[in-house]
Design goal:
500 residues, mainly alpha, three-stranded mixed beta sheet, 62% helix, disordered N terminus
Length: 500
């Protein structure tokens, strides 16, 4: 598997960017965010038009869409919908308490054990799994996300570009890639800059101290407005700083790319002391997501031993999450009876939760008990109708039991809630394949690729839909028109000279 950062550099400059209407993908109900007003903006500078003179909204959009295309194809993005939905919901909750009413955001999770998060043009915010695992509370994760939101709404990357007087979109894109590469490896970032003949801007890869102070202040305001523990931000910063003092070269990635000084921590601490004390309890989803990440980390034996040891020694802050994590680790071990025993404990001792209900269905599927699996999915969906892991699971169950008409009816019912979710189109494609409807099969798969930012494959599949030879007149006309639209998405950016 290639590192996400290498793929980004190799493909960013060489390939055509996505089309103008792709941001519509982030305006849908399942992933939109318009930020409401209502937080303070003390001590923040008046940006004027400095960022807009470097990146127009269309250019920023195209850069962000290309980044997402490369991110999605890297193999490093976490695909577990329960993990991604948790981070997205947390991010949207925070962003809704931010200062910019119009900024769109797209939050995603990167499988990387380093402690880091990063913001890129177009409101893209990536979170490393290592950050979630290193945090001792949900408010600590929220504090880092709030900080990254601050970088976005203050257009810090665009301001760095303005300071460098960059007038080439290719140079801007290269700097964006180098900044992203720096999140993993400063050496790799230097290589990117050398390759792009952009020597002399290496110092601009890291945010300036003023940028960091601005992001801290906005992040703190967001944290307070969203109801989290504001003391978590300086506490987590202090933990990172202390942990990096004892081993040379051990500074977490977040510290390398977000310079952290005693003065900066003191500034945040001083602002926190002026706010009223609030104790914020972690959501159960946060605890379960951390447990899920741990259950899939390392070997099966290590995962099982970790949770069994924690439960035996009572070294936990949330007991339910340890039983949940142990159940997942035991499923990895194919010990379904052991997993069922942990589920029974959760059912008896913990509040009902969609992630636990999904676990119960997964156990029945693994037991090859389709009737009990169907019963569990339907019961759980009545309580949690919008939980995507349950929706996907039940749809896959219907496909596996050859209930094709039912699965299409189910997808038609659920898909309007998530119109830009590629998984629904892939489920459709599987159903149409089972029915032998080739035009509809390829059309659905094309739309899935489109929503994964992979335009070439979308064109390829839509072309196969046109050539399928079945379908009625309306369907054939529809796929022909759509194929022309998709081809334009590749051609138009080249005609405009974007990334020549």
């Amino acid at each position: 598997m290639k590192p996400i950062y290498v793929i980004l550099f190799c493909t960013f400059v060489a390939s055509a960017v996505l089309a103008e209407d792709l941001p519509k993908l982030r305006k849908a109900p399942d992933d939109r965010i318009l930020i409401a007003p209502g937080v303070r903006s003390d001590d923040l500078p008046d940006l004027g038009d400095v960022s807009q003179t470097v990146l127009t909204p269309l250019q920023e959009q195209r850069i962000s869409d290309q980044i997402m295309r490369d991110v999605m194809s890297s193999g490093d993005v976490v695909q577990d919908v329960e993990v991604t939905d948790y981070v997205q919901n947390l991010g949207y909750k925070l962003a809704a308490n931010g200062p910019d009413k119009h900024q769109l955001f797209n939050f995603f999770v990167v499988q990387d054990n380093s402690i880091n998060a990063f913001a890129m043009p177009g409101g893209l915010i990536g979170v490393h799994t290592g950050l979630i695992l290193a945090a001792n509370s949900e408010s600590e994760v929220a504090g880092v996300l709030g900080h990254e939101i601050g970088h976005v709404v203050q257009h810090h990357m665009a301001r760095m570009m303005a300071q460098q007087k960059m007038d080439s979109i290719k140079s801007i894109a290269t700097l964006a890639l180098a900044a992203l590469a720096a999140r993993a490896s400063p050496e790799l970032a230097g290589g990117v800059m050398t390759t792009a003949s952009a020597a002399g801007v290496q110092s601009q890869l890291n945010y300036t101290r003023e940028h960091e102070r601005e992001a801290d202040r906005i992040g703190l305001q967001i944290l307070d407005s969203a109801g989290f523990d504001v003391r978590a931000m300086p506490r987590f910063f202090e933990t990172l700083q202390k942990g990096s003092r004892f081993v040379e070269g051990s500074a977490p990635s977040f510290l390398r790319t977000h310079p952290l000084t005693t003065e900066r921590i003191a500034d945040v601490r001083n602002r926190v002391d002026q706010l009223p004390y609030r104790q914020a309890q972690d959501s159960q989803e946060f605890q379960y997501v951390r447990a899920k990440l741990l259950a899939n980390l390392g070997s099966i034996q290590q995962a099982v031993a970790l949770f069994e040891g924690n439960l035996a020694d009572k070294t936990y802050t949330n007991e339910a999450s340890q039983h949940y994590g142990l159940a997942l680790a035991l499923i990895r071990k194919s010990n379904l009876e052991g997993a069922a025993a942990q589920l029974a404990w959760l059912r008896k001792n913990a509040a009902r939760n969609a992630m636990v209900e999904t676990l119960a269905a997964q156990i029945e599927v693994a037991r090859n008990n389709p009737q009990q699996a169907a019963k569990q999915y339907l019961t759980a969906l009545m309580a949690f109708p919008g939980h995507r892991a349950l929706i996907y699971g039940y749809a896959e169950h219907l496909l596996a039991t050859n209930q094709i008409d039912q699965v299409l009816k189910f997808i038609n019912e659920k898909q309007p809630q998530y119109p830009n979710d590629p998984n629904f189109f892939e489920l459709r494609s599987k159903a149409y394949t089972a029915q032998g409807k080739n035009l509809l099969r390829h059309q659905a798969q094309s739309e899935a690729y489109f929503r994964r930012y992979d335009i070439p494959k979308a064109v390829e599949q839509m072309d196969l839909a046109v050539k399928a030879g079945d379908g009625d007149f309306y369907q054939r006309s529809s796929v022909e028109a759509r194929l022309n639209e998709l081809r334009l998405l590749v051609i138009e950016p080249k005609k405009e000279g974007f990334f020549n």
